[in-house]
């Protein structure tokens, strides 16, 4: 049966979401799919078999590097080369855009495919989930505040300096949806020293200059309501982040292989990036 690789359309979202849920055994990812349509409409692809969606893959291009995510194939259609076709479409598009580096976090089953296409291992990424209720200590002297629109230029500059590229479109979209859940810490000079975005069921992005600031942000984030027990995506080698998360009741759910293709870039994944926005967006 012919497999067609096509751009994701809004009319595909419901069926694509069903495929992703089945492939990952997860809850709905419709919000993420709409993010792809809004932020990178030329970077999201579906695989169709007789007009039925059977696979998905997407990327966000941050200019200095791109992040591939949500690679998924319907369970009954796996091992037929569909994932390979989706990956080829994504890589061809990124090559046309002149993207120097491509990053992703691969499941163990996906690693062999990515290695065949020139990806190299570069550490691990862990998924942690809050599984225990732990009494939170009182807040410190320096308050954690929700970011206002006036804070955004400084926050975006702070993020770019640590993330390694400009992801203003993504962060502005998150902030516009829930400004009260974008938390910032400031130092004694009034400069932003860290921030945490508390999504509906994910803590991240979560960036800080040191562990003490990261802890204050985490405590403020955990005081907010969530749809489910929140998750965090972090480098396995980030000892400070893992110590904090363990202290406040998080446990490791699974491990993924962090990989890159093209020019290897140095980012503070094990020091200042305490939590990713997602496995697909970095």
From TrEMBL:
Concerning SUPFAM superfamilies, the annotation shows: Acyl-CoA N-acyltransferases (Nat)
Keyword hit for Transcription regulation: no
Keywords tagged on the record: Transferase
Q: Which CDD domains match?
A: NAT_SF (cd04301)
Looking up Gene3D superfamilies in the UniProt record yields: 3.40.630.30, 3.40.630.90
Q: Which GO terms describe its molecular function?
A: acyltransferase activity, transferring groups other than amino-acyl groups
- The N-acetyltransferase domain, residue ranges: 3-133
The coiled-coil regions, if any, are none
Pfam families, A to Z: Acetyltransf_1, Acetyltransf_18
Q: Does the keyword Transmembrane apply?
A: no
Q: What is this protein called?
A: GCN5-related N-acetyltransferase
Q: Which organism is it from?
A: Ktedonobacter racemifer DSM 44963
């Amino acid at each position: 049966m012919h497999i067609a690789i096509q751009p994701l359309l809004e009319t595909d979202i419901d069926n694509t979401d069903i495929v992703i849920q089945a492939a990952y055994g997860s809850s709905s990812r419709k919000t993420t799919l709409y993010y792809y349509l809004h932020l990178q409409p030329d970077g999201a692809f579906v695989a169709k078999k007789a007009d039925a969606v059977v696979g998905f893959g997407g990327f966000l291009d941050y200019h200095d590097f791109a992040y591939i995510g949500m690679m998924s194939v319907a369970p009954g259609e796996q091992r037929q080369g569909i994932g390979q076709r989706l990956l080829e479409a994504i890589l061809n598009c990124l090559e046309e855009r002149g993207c120097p580096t491509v990053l992703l976090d691969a499941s163990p089953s996906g690693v062999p495919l990515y290695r065949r296409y020139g990806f190299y291992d570069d550490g691990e990424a862990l998924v942690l989930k809050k599984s225990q209720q732990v009494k939170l200590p009182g807040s410190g002297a320096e308050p954690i505040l929700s970011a206002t629109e006036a804070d955004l230029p400084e926050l975006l500059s702070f993020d770019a300096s640590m993330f390694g590229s400009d992801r203003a479109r993504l962060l502005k979209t998150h902030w516009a949806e829930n400004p009260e859940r974008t938390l910032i810490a400031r130092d004694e000079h009034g400069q932003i020293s860290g921030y945490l975005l508390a999504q509906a069921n994910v803590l991240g992005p979560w960036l800080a200059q040191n562990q003490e600031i990261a802890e204050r942000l985490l405590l403020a984030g955990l005081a907010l309501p969530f749809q489910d027990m929140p998750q965090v995506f972090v480098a396995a080698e980030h000892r400070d982040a893992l110590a904090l998360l363990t202290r406040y009741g998080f446990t490791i759910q699974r491990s993924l292989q962090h990989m890159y293709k093209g020019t290897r870039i140095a980012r503070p994944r094990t020091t200042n990036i305490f939590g990713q926005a997602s496995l697909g967006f970095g």
